[in-house]
Amino acid sequence: MPRARNPEIRALLLERAAAMLRRREAVTLRGLVAGTTVSTMAVYTYFDGMDGLWKALRQEGFVRLSAKLSEVPETADPVRDLAALGAAYLDNALENPDLYRVMFDAGFELEDTAAADASLHKLVVAVGRATAAGRFREDVDALELATQTWVVGHGLASLTATGPLPHEALGLAVPMLTALFVAAGDDPECSRASVESGWVLGATADAHPPGG
Length: 212
What we know:
Blueprint: H1 7-22, H2 29-33, H3 41-47, H4 50-70, H5 78-95, H6 97-103, H7 113-132, H8 142-160, H9 173-183, H10 188-198
C-alpha cells in the first residue's frame, strides 16, 4: 500500500515557499527542505514537482481569501456588507502579501478554479441583496458591479500590500466605493454611511452597523 501523505508536511512546504518569497529568495527544491527533516522528494510526493507547488500556492491564496470573506457577517444592510467584503479582501492581501502576489500569476493553473470563482460570487450575492432591498437600480448587472467592486479592492491591494503606496491610501476606498454605488442607484448619504460602516480594516468579523 502507498504510504499515507502527511498534511502537515504539505502545509510546511507551502509556508516555507511563502516565507522564501517574502525574503525575496529563489524558491528551489533544496531551499524548500533546507533545515527540515524532509527530502526534496517530498515536493514530488505532495505536488508532483515545482509546477505543482506553484499551483498549490496560488490555490492556497484563494483558500485563505475565501476563509477571510466567510468571516464577514451578513447584516440588514447589504451595501455595508458589500463594503465589508472589500475590506476583508484587503485584510487578506495585507496578511498574506506573498501569497497574494502568486494568486494572480496566470502562468500556473489553479487546482480548483471553482473555489476561486466562489470569492467573486460572494460579492455578486451581496449586490443582488442590495438590489432586492431597493438600494440599487433593478437594471444593475450584479456580476458587473461585483467585478467593479473587486477592481477597486484589487487595485488598492496591489498598490499597498505589494506596491508603492502607504497604507493610508486604503482610505480612498470609501469615496471610490461610494461613487460606484451611487452610480448604481444608491442614495449618496446612505451609501456613504454604509460604506464607512463596512470599510473596517482588520475587524471585519466584528463590524456590525448600528441596529444590524
